[in-house]
Amino acid sequence: MSETLSEALVLTILQHAEEFPWRMQDIGLMSLRLDDRREYRLHIWDPGCYIAEPPIHDHPYDFTSTIIAGELTNTRYEEDSAGDEYVRFRYSPGAEDERRSDSVRLSSTATVFTEGNQYCQLAQELHASWQQPGTVTAIRCSWVEAPELTICVRDEGSWPSAQGRDATGEEIKSFTAKALEWF
After folding, report:
1. How many other C-beta atoms are found inside a 10 Å radius of the C-beta of residue 147?
2. pTM, 2 dp
3. Range of the domain at 71
4. How many structural domains are present in the chain?
5. CATH number where 107 lies
6. 174 and 46 in contact (C-beta within 8 Å)?
């Protein structure tokens, strides 16, 4: 699919957003699955809906993210004895309440992406991302066998759940209004 067609398709989805089953995550992310295999998703970001720092995390899939509209900073983290200290939680997929924790030191490298840019992220790579309000991304997931997942935060009390829920009508209106400002 060409970039022009992608933007046209996304614009049509956003203009009729209330007709789709959007999901919310409490990290300022509203998402829409675009296929039954859970391979393609559309994301709309509003970091104003999440009051803490975005969590450093990995995924149960490799992915490629394309910035359709807006701007995103993706920061990758690696273990580094001279890095900043974090609380690291590890858990089995689907059992995030049965997590264990330790501490880890991480260093980071940040990259800014804008409309039309694309980046790839491997499942086991730790990262966090910061988005301008209304940023729209399309991701393609390639699911992998992930026996455990990781989240790293500054303090033990700031555990963000990875579980999604249905978006409310007000959330759909608010997120899509911010996204449409980029078009």
Report:
1. 8
2. 0.91
3. 3-180
4. 1
5. 2.60.120.10
6. yes
